[in-house]
Structures are given as C-alpha cells and as structure tokens.
Amino acid sequence: MGFAETFKALSEPIRREILILLRQGSLSAGEIGSHFDLTGATISYHLSQLKKADLVLESRQKNYIYYELNTSVLEELMLWLSQFKEEER
Amino acid sequence: MGFAETFKALSEPIRREILILLRQGSLSAGEIGSHFDLTGATISYHLSQLKKADLVLESRQKNYIYYELNTSVLEELMLWLSQFKEEER
DNA sequence: ATAGTATTTAGATAATATTCGAAATAGAAT
DNA sequence: ATTCTATTTCGAATATTATCTAAATACTAT
To answer: How high does pLDDT run on average in chain A?
Structure first.
C-alpha cells in the first residue's frame, strides 16, 4: 500500500538485514533479534514497520510469533523501477 | 553510495515524481519546481537529496542548473531486489 | 559596475522516526 | 492459579526530515 511506506521501510539497514535473514525461511521475533545489538522493543518496532509496508507476514505458533518474507511487494517495486530501464525508453 | 540514502531518497513522493519527470530528458531546477506547489528552496532541498543519493546528475548552462536521471543506481537497486525473487531461491 | 534572474544556503520550526526501559499482553507449562 | 517466556505497547528522549522565509551566490545582460 504505497511506495512511500515501502521505500521508507527499506531505507533502514536493520530492516534490510531482517529481510535478508528471512530469505532462508521464517524466524521468530526473538531469533531475528538475536542477530542485532538492539532491545526486543526496538526489534519489535522494526518488524511492525516491515509489516506495515507489507514486506513481511506474521503467524503465531505456541508463544512465538514467526515472521516470513512477503515477496509480492518487492516484485511491485521492481516493476516500478523497471520504468527507468534504458531499454524501455 | 549506500542503499540507505537511495531508499530514503525514493521514499518521498515528490522525489519519485521528479525522477519520473526526468525520464523525458533533463530539466532545470525551475522547470522541475513549476510542477509542484513548493518553494524553490524546498525543490532545491529535494534535488540535493536526489543528488546525494546519486539518482540525478547536475550540469550548469548559462544561469540554469539542469538535472538529469542517473539510471545506474536504479539498476543497482533492481539487482539488490532481485535477490528476493522466488526463482532465485 | 549595476541590475536581474536562477538557484542554493542558512536558520527556524513543526512533524516524524528511532531507541530505550518499564509495563502490559499472550500463551505455555507447571 | 501461578509462574515463565516471548513479544508488544507505552512514554519519554533524541535525532532526522521537510518546509518556509530571508539572505547569499552565481551567472547574464545591460
């Protein structure tokens, strides 16, 4: 929903790293957090930004919350970018 | 230089619109500004952000400053995004 | 040299974003 | 029911961003 949110979400290095971690498969919030020197609260905030941008999906299992990539928005982004490709003009 | 700047630059609708305007060819700062209801100072600020992100190049002619697209960074961005394509994994 | 036009820079302000510690919620397990 | 673990939400502090007006710079043309 809107390139503004998507690009803003991707502008933070930590959030891009989270997405790269999730390429391997889904991870819980805690597992994601263990890769960074930030509090759980901060990780949770970044995950909420990624979720708001529709870049990740969450699913609850036991008392964990798992996050996984949602590649569809990234594909839309590539489509937007492709309008600038030399060939196209 | 650095995806952070690039994504941040692209997160503002006005800056994305400026890039789209520049698909047609180079424009002076004033011509760009005429498309928006913002002061020249603000346009100049946005152009400086795009320049900082290497998304545009500037060239001076007479007492105008012309801006043009620099597509190379956009291509790097597509490359970064392509790591998330389903096919690749 | 002076005046005019185009653009940027500086300084101020308001809005938004990032981070933390502490408290709250949700669910699991005893 | 109580406790434990995982995660989020709240409130506050700090930093960053977007915007404006006014002043400065750069170049042109008279």
So the answer is: 94
